[in-house]
Amino acid sequence: MGLEFIEGNEAIARGALKANCNFFAGYPITPSSSILHHMMNKLPRVGGVAIQAEDEIASIGMCIGAAMTGAKALTATSGPGISLYSENIGLAVIGETPLVIINVQRQGPATGAATKGAEGDILFTRWCTSGGQPMIVLSPTSVSEAYELTYRAFNLAEKYRVPVFLLTNKEIGVTRESVDLEKVELPQLFNRKVSDMGDSYLPYKFKELNEVPEFAEIGGDQITRFTTSSHDEAGYLTTSPETIQRMIDHYTAKIESAEDDIALAKQDIEVGAEILIISYGITSRSVSIAVKKMREQGCKVSSITVQSLYPVPRTIINKAMSGIKRVVVPEMNMGQYIQEIQRLTPSGVKVVGVNKMDTTLLSPDEIIERGTKS
Amino acid sequence: MSPVINTYLTNEFGPLPFCPGCGHGPILKALDKALVKLQPDPAKTVIVTDIGCIGLSDRYFITQGFHGLHGRSITYACGLKLASPELTVIVLKGDGGCGIGGTHLLNVARRNIDITLLIANNFNYGMTGGQHSVSTPFNGITPTTPMGNFEGAMDLCGTSIAAGACWAYRGTSFDKDLPERIAEAISQNGFSMLDIWEMCSAYYMPHNKLKKKDLVDIMKNNNLKYGLVANNPRPEYGFQYRTKYLETATPEPKPRTIEAKFENNVKRQTGIVIAGSAGQKVRSAGTLLAQSSMYSGLSATQKDDYPITVMTGHSVSEIIVAPEWINYTAIDTVDYFVLVSEDGLMKTKSRIEKLPSTCIMFVEKSLNLPPTDAKIIRLPLIETSKKVNRLSIVILALAALIKDSDIIDLDAFAEAIKAFQKPVIAEISLRALKAGSEMIQEAQELEPIVESY
Predict the structure, then answer these.
(1) Where in chain B is the domain with CATH 3.40.920.10?
(2) What class has domain B270-451?
(3) Most B CBs within 10 Å: which of A10, A228, A285, as the mutation test of the B interface?
(4) Alpha-helical runs (H) found in chain A
(5) Number of CB pairs < 8 Å for A and B?
(6) What CATH number is attached to the domain comprising A288?
(7) How far is B244 from chain A (nearest CA, A)?
(8) What ipTM was reported for this prediction?
(9) B262-320 residue pLDDT tens
C-alpha cells in the first residue's frame, strides 16, 4: 500500500466506516461540510443511511433515534452547530446513547472567521450541555490520527454508551496530507453489549455504579424505553431523590472509573527536564519542532501530546510533572486546557500559556519565545 | 401465529394521568383501538413523544417507548424509521411541540418519511401554565395573551400539506370515528398526520368558556375543513432511498495510492504558494504538484484559500513538500511563489512585499508587482496558456518552476497527471507540461526577465 493525499475530514469518514458506522445525519457548515459529503457518498455503498437534516437539532436527533435501533451513528459540525446540538447531547447522556460527534473547530465566537482555524471549543465541548456530566473528548493531531481517533471514538461510545466527541480543527479537517491509512494500527472493534434478558429486560439496570447497562435495540425482540427524563432502571420517570442521585452517580462513575482506559497521549520525556510542554491538536506538531530546536540548543525539555482531552489523563500528566519547574501550555485559544493543567500542577511550578486565536498556527518559535523565555 | 392483542394500553401505572375533561385520554384510547385493529407487533412499534402533557403517554403503552426533548419527537422518529424501516413509528405531540419544532414538521412532510403524527391540539401549553401556542385561536385568553390573542393561529394541516404532507386529517377528540382515522393514518405508506382538536380542562377551556361544539365552530369560522384534508400518496423517502441509493450504489473504489519511484532534490521543508483566480484550476494543479512530490519520495501538505463565492475572486494554494513528515503546516518563509493573475496578486500583495530574497517568484509577465526582495522570473503564462488551454495556466507555471528549480523530476509531474486526471484533461496537461518547461528554457536563454528589487 502506498500513500494517499487526503484531508482530515475524509479520514474521519473513512475511520467511521472502518468502525462500521451505518448512520449519519448532518447539516452543512464550514469547515466540516466535506464529512457530510463523504458520508452521503460512502454510506449507501455499504448499505447504511446518510441524510442531510434540516438543521443541527434534527441532525443529532435523527442520530439518537437511529442509535437506539442499534445503529452506529455519526454526526459532524463546527462550533456553532455544537450550540444547537447542546440540548440533545444531554439527551444522549441521560439516555445512554452511543454516538460519535465531530467538531471541526473554526475561529469564533459566533460566525467568527468561518473558514479559518482555532481551538476555542475545548471547555465548551467539555461543558456543552446542562447537568455537567463528564464527557469523552478525543483530539487528533494529524490526518491519520483523525482516522484512528474516529475509529476509537466509536469503540468508546459503544463501550460506555455515551456521546463521544472528536474535537478537531479546520487546520486538520481541510488540510491534505500524504498518509498511509493502512499502516495505522487500530484496536479491535468493540460493539455495545446487547441484552438477552427477554421479558425481564430493564434498559437502565446496573449493579455497580460504573457498570454500563446492557442494550436492547428499539425494534428488537425486547421491549425497551428511552427517556429524556430522570428515570429508574426500567426507564420510567422517577422523582425519587435516591434513584435520581444514583443515576447521576452512574453517569459520572462510568466515565471517571474508565479514565485510564480512555487515556491516550504521546509522551516525549527527557530525563532531567525542567520544562514540560503540554499540547494537543495541530499545535502539538509545532511543539515537536520546538522541542527538537530546544534540545539542539542544549535545553532539557519534555512534552506530552494529549489525545484524550477528557477525561483528563491525570495519571500520565502527573507522572510527567516529576522534577518539572515550568509547564508550558500552547493553545489556539486564550487559555482553556491550561485550566485543567493548573489543577494538576504542584505548587511552586510555573504554568505558562502561549495563546492566540488570530486564525494562524502557533509557530515553533512563538512557543519557544513566549513559553520558555518570559 | 401470535395471540390477538386486546389492548395496547397497560395499567401498570394505574389510570391515565390526565386532568378530568382533558382530551388526551380519549386520544390515547382512540390510538389503542386503532392499534388493536391493526395488530402490529408491540416490539416493532414505537411510540415517540416529547415534552407537554401528551409526552406522558408513551409509558402507558406496551410498545417500545421513546420520550425526547420538547418539539423534537419528529427528528427521533425519522432516525428510528430510517435506521429500522420495519418499525411502525407513531409520534404523539402537542401544539406547543409543533411551534418549537415547526421546521421538523415541515421537513418530515416534505421528505415524506413513513411516520404517523398525532397532534393533541389543545391551543395552549398545558404543562407550563396555559401560555398561548401557535394554534391558539384569535382572541383566545391565556396568561400570555391576557387581553386576547392577536397572533394568527397556524393551520397545522394546511401548513403540513403546503410542505408536502400526503395524508392529513383534522378532527376532534370527541370524534366517534377517530380510531378508524388513526388506523387509516398508520396504514399510509408515507407521512400522515392528524390534527386532533381537544380541551385543556385546566387552562384553555375555563379561561375561554370553551365547549365541545365550539371546536367545530372555530373550524367553520376559519374555513378549516373538518375531516380528511388531504390524501395524495407519493413515493416514501425510505423507499426512494433504498431504490435510488442502496440498490444502485457500487462498492467504494479502492483509493489510488502513490509509490515513490522518482528522485528528488529537496533537502528541507519547502513552501510553495500558488496565487491565481477562481476557475484557473489553482487547487487541482496544486494537488498534482503535491502528488508528484509524493511520487518523488516526499511528504506533502496542501491548504487552499478562496472566497465563499467560489466562482469568483482569488484562489490560493499552499503546498509544502519535505523529505520527512511535515509537522508545521504553515508557510512562514516562502521558497517558491507562483503568481498567475490579478486576483491572486490582490490577495497576496502584502505577503509578496515581505518575501525573502531566497524566494523565487514565477510571475505572469503582465502583472505589476509591489516591491519585494524575492527573485522574479516573468513568464508569458497567459499568452502561452491561450495556445495550450486556458485552464492549464497553473500547470504551465508549475512546469516552469519544476524545470527551473529541479526540486523534482518533470516525469513525476507527468506521472501524477496521468494517474489522477481524466485522460482528456491529462492530454492537455501533458502538453502544458511540455510548453511550460520549454517556456522557462527560453526564458533562461534570454535572461532579462529575471529581475529583483
Answers:
(1) 270-451
(2) alpha beta
(3) A228
(4) 8-18, 33-42, 56-67, 79-94, 122-126, 143-160, 170-173, 241-256, 259-262, 283-296, 314-320, 337-344, 364-372
(5) 206
(6) 3.40.50.920
(7) 10
(8) 0.97
(9) 999 999 999 999 999 999 999 999 999 999 999 999 999 999 999 988 899 999 999 99
